[in-house]
Amino acid sequence: MQQSRSQQLFEQAQRVIPGGVNSPVRSFRAVEGTPPFLARGQGSRVWDVDGNEYIDYLGSWGPLALGHAHPVVVEAVQRAAADGTSFGAPVEQEVELAEIICAALPSVDSLRLVNSGTEACMTALRLARAYTGRPKIVKFAGNYHGHADGLLVAAGSGALTHGVPTSAGVPESYAAETLVAAYNDAESVAELFAAWPNDIAAVIVEPVAGNMGVVPPASGFLNSLRSITEANGALLIFDEVITGFRVAYGGAQSLFGVAPDITTMGKIIGGGLPVGAYGGRRDVMEMVAPLGPMYQAGTLSGNPLAVTAGVATLKELQRPETYERLEASASRLTDGIAAVFSQAEIPASINRVGSMFTGFFNPGPVATLSEVEKSDTTTYGRYFHALLERGVYIAPSQFEAGFASVAHTDADIDRTIVAVGDALSQVS
Ligand code: KE4
Asked: Which end of the chain has fewer CB atoms < 10 Å from its terminal CB, N or C?
């Protein structure tokens, strides 16, 4: 049988790029098969190099709250590019993006732009250690904060001992400075502070978990993290790389009414171009060079094209009714899918916060990592491909989030719900 263009390109790519991809999850190893090489996107749709069309709920893993190739964003980037792609000097758009974000997030007095969520989270840890003078960090099993060494860490053997690396190349000595707690279990955090009373610089958390699939914070969980960190002289870091401008214009911190000391951001604030940011309390941010002793730098930080895309995107998201529309679309989708799941022979459930969601092959409720881990990933893989064959593109892993955008129409959503029913019949 004639190879598809995607298959040809995937073979070609694997000769010059590890695994043929520039980020592992794109390889489809979690769901098997050949990843379609995408050629273009428009609104809620993407097309692959073989001309197949998909309704896209991946949305580049979160940045595209406006959908693909939004005309306002495209035109702004085209105009900026004509004036030069990079200067390594301050540009006006950096100030505008920082002002928009600080106005949206009252807990952020000032921020530094970087080029990815990884950079933002890596630097936030360094900042917390610089500010507190303490070495240890608490993260949660199942939360992902990018690929910085200190964050590629899983729970160690004993619940109160240091973390162990989840990647080759991360020294045990480095992982030892990371302690791992259980998501939605504030007591597990209190126990770590009891065990290490003066050593913990910060707790970093996804205020809505997106990297174990979508798992909402349990009622009071974020408030407990706020009070535990305050009582122990540690900082609270909200990793809002996914949730920032996603679950609300003011992020999860506005939705749940908890103000962190540091917030990390990415994805939507770059509108699909490489932008990350970390920001927070003025006294904390005064540690950052050239003001203070904590060093962080970047050739392309605040790049004029990237910040232009971010400014255009956030201004579009300021339009009245935007988040009401996102909520209406996402709830129409997940209510419809939940109805189909309830009729299915195989156990399945769905979690949603705002316009981020995950369908689990799991009877549910899915509120902790241990419950997530009971999901049937084999069935998820078959369901993923059954949907792809029906022109619906969701996350190629059970442990990721899907996203609705302002570009998804009711017709898109209703067609998706039908496809979900057909796909479930096929995999049952
Ligand atoms: P980046 O370095 O990929 O821009 O951001 C890292 C990051 C930080 N914090 C959170 C909560 C994140 O979800 C991410 C990255 N998200 C993954 C998908 N869940 C990006 C996709 C990929 O790795 O290819």
From this structure: N
